[in-house]
Design goal:
The chain is α/β, with parallel strands linked by helices and 359 residues long. It has 2 domains: 2-173, 3-Layer(aba) Sandwich (Rossmann fold), CATH 3.40.50; 176-355, Dehydroquinate synthase-like - alpha domain (Dehydroquinate synthase-like, alpha domain, Up-down Bundle). The chain has 14 helices and 11 strands. The protein has helices at 24-31, 43-58, 78-90, 105-117, 131-137, 175-192, 194-202, 204-208, 212-232, 247-256, 263-280, 286-299, 310-316, 347-355, and strands at residues 2-6, 13-18, 37-42, 64-69, 98-103, 123-128, 142-147, 150-157, 162-166, 328-335, 338-344. β1 and β2 form a beta hairpin. It is globular, with a radius of gyration of 20 Å.
């Protein structure tokens, strides 16, 4: 088991990276959480992972009440939150209770939001089962829900007690979701670590063949990159915004097409558009743009979108949480491994970059 610490003062917590659920109960015991326990998962993850996870807990004397939501982004709303509140109230959960989020980013965000708001805050644990969640959303404490087509517009910053990351859960993922998760991993290499980017590009086949050493290294570096940024800027007042590389346009595409495309697929498109924008601003050369596009293609991620609605995507970006004074904030690369934040109010430039995604 590999252990990484996220150092946030009294909100600090460990990330455990391992290959099964055998250490989960011990991790709970070490955290000294002793209250009632509810496992929140979705209909897909429950079939693939639910029994194995609960069996590991019960074998060590824990009883976990289970609540299953319908899989998919469309469950990420206040109606689902309300139903979970009722479930916890019926079970008489108190402030010493804990929630375990077994699933991908949707389950983690929902469970974290419930934990942040039920009785003004109870314990929760992240057990990410998708590559996207293991690489990104389970670390850093961003929790929340979508509202009226606006992604993550209601939420909070609320850190878990720990993250328990079993890399072998990835074997149960549909290939499309595995590919989508790789988008956030590529993102981390581009924003912070050129050597890690090289590792990803060179080891795509090992990753998709579920090589345990490659997967654990991937998880360790990802969590270290994300963790180091969060430690310096927990609530996204400055540095943490670099984690949004590819997300300003990506989130807009996701919303415009009503979540038809997976988050990672939209981030892939958003990164390509951001790279093109940086090239037009003479910040980055064509060779770096082409290299990233080639890596995304090798992984099987989209780099273009047939019939993209340029105006609608542009307009939807103004609902982004990072808009200030009605101006769009972008994270743009200067090189692989280095990005900067900048405000761009050149509508023609932004639309040109979106238009370059046209298949």
């Amino acid at each position: 088991m590999v252990k990484i610490n996220i150092n946030l003062g009294e909100r600090s917590y460990p990330i455990y990276i391992t290959t099964d659920y055998s250490g989960l109960a011990k991790s709970i015991a070490v955290s000294k959480i002793t209250g009632k326990m509810a496992l929140i998962t979705d209909s897909n993850v429950d079939k693939a992972q639910g029994k194995e996870c609960i069996d590991a807990l019960e074998a060590n004397g824990y009883t976990a009440h289970k609540y299953v939501i319908e899989a998919g982004e469309k469950s990420k709303n206040l109606d689902t939150i309300k139903d979970i509140y009722k479930f916890l109230i019926d079970l008489k959960f108190d402030r010493n209770s804990m929630l375990l989020a077994l699933g991908g980013g949707v389950v983690g965000d929902i469970t974290g939001f419930v934990a942040a708001t039920y009785l003004r805050g109870i314990n929760f644990i992240q057990i990410p089962t998708s590559l996207l969640a293991q690489a990104d959303s389970s670390v850093g404490g961003k929790v929340g829900v979508d509202f009226e087509g606006k992604k993550n517009i209601i939420g909070a910053f609320y850190q878990p007690k720990f993250v328990y990351l079993n890399v072998n859960t990835l074997k149960t993922l549909p290939v499309r979701e595995m590919k989508a998760g790789m988008a956030e991993i590529v993102k981390h290499g581009i924003i912070r670590d050129p050597e890690f980017y090289d590792f990803i590009d060179y080891n795509v086949s090992k990753i998709f063949n579920f090589d345990e050493d490659a997967l654990q290294y991937l998880a360790k570096v990802n969590c270290s990159i994300k963790g180091s940024v969060v430690e310096q800027d927990e609530k996204e007042s400055d540095l943490r915004a670099i984690l949004n590389f590819g997300h300003t346009i990506g989130h807009a595409i996701e919303s415009v097409y009503e979540f038809k495309y997976l988050h990672g697929e939209c981030v892939s498109l958003g990164m390509v558009a951001a790279l093109k924008m940086a090239k037009y601003l003479d910040m980055i050369g064509e060779s770096d743009v082409s290299r990233v596009v080639d890596t995304l293609k090798k992984i099987g991620l989209p780099v273009s979108l047939e019939g993209i609605d340029i105006d609608e995507v542009y307009n939807r970006m103004f609902f982004d949480k990072k808009v200030k004074d009605n101006k769009l904030n972008f994270v743009l690369p200067k090189a692989i491994g280095e990005v900067i934040q900048c405000v761009i109010d050149d509508e023609a430039l932004i639309k040109k970059a979106i238009g370059d995604l046209q298949a």
